[in-house]
Specification:
Number of strands: 0
Helix content: over 70%
Shape: globular
Strand content: under 5%
Length: about 110
C-alpha cells in the first residue's frame, strides 16, 4: 500500500515522523537509539521531541553543510507532518500502534525529498 497522505491519525503521523528521522540519521551514517525507537511507538510525546533536539538536529546540521536546499525541503516536509497533529500523544493504544507501524513502513518506502 502506498503512503496515504490524507491519513492524519496520531499513530500514522508519528510513525511517519520517526521514519523520517531514521532516514535522516541514515543519510549521515548514524542510527537512532533502539530504546528511543521502541518507546516512540508507545509514548511519542517523550521521544519525538528528544530525538529532534538531539541526533536528528545534529544529522541535519551535517547535511546542511553539503546541501542546504535539500535540508530545507526535508525540514519543510517534517514541519508539515508535525503540523497535522494538535500535540504529540502521550500514549498510543494498540490500534494507534498499528497505525504507527503502517505510517513508519509507508514513509520508509517513499523516502524523503533529499
Amino acid at each position: 500500500m502506498p503512503l496515504d497522505n490524507s491519513r492524519n491519525t496520531p499513530g500514522y503521523v508519528c510513525g511517519r515522523i520517526i521514519a523520517a528521522y531514521e532516514l535522516i540519521a541514515a543519510r549521515v551514517g548514524e542510527e537512532l537509539p533502539l530504546n528511543d525507537l521502541n518507546l516512540s511507538a508507545t509514548h511519542p510525546v517523550y521521544t519525538i521531541p528528544r530525538l529532534r533536539a538531539g541526533q536528528v538536529r545534529k544529522a541535519l546540521a551535517r547535511m546542511r553543510r553539503r546541501s542546504p536546499a535539500r535540508v530545507a525541503r526535508v525540514e519543510a516536509y517534517i514541519a508539515d507532518l508535525v503540523a497535522r497533529l494538535d500535540h504529540f500523544p502521550e500514549h498510543l493504544d494498540p490500534e494507534q500502534r498499528a497505525e504507527y507501524v503502517l505510517g513508519e513502513a509507508h514513509q520508509k518506502v517513499v523516502g524523503l525529498p533529499f
